[in-house]
Amino acid sequence: MSQDHLIKFQCKECDRINYYSRKNKKTAQKKLELKKFCKWCKKHTLHKELKK
């Protein structure tokens, strides 16, 4: 993945970075929030995009 479009997702409950993804920063202006599985919390939690 190219580094300029790389974003990190952090768990809102345990504050660990669990997922990496990429997005088009020209079309998606808001920060992404996805419900993903956290392997430390062992449940589905809200993951928010981190600031780079």
What does this molecule look like?
By secondary structure, the chain is mainly beta. It has one domain: Ribosomal protein L33 (Rubrerythrin, domain 2, Single Sheet). The chain is 0% helix and 48% strand. The protein contains no helices and four strands. The protein has a four-stranded antiparallel β-sheet, with no helix packed on it. A hairpin with a 4-residue loop joins β3 and β4. The protein is elongated, with a radius of gyration of 11 Å. The model has no long low-confidence stretch (mean pLDDT 89).
Arithmetic mean of pLDDT = 89
Biggest sheet character:
4 strands, antiparallel
- CATH H level, superfamily name: Ribosomal protein L33
Assembly context of the chains:
single chain
Q: Overall 3D geometry?
A: elongated
Per the CATH scheme, the topology name is: Rubrerythrin, domain 2
The count of helical stretches stands at 0
Instruction: Quote the beta fraction.
Output: over 45%
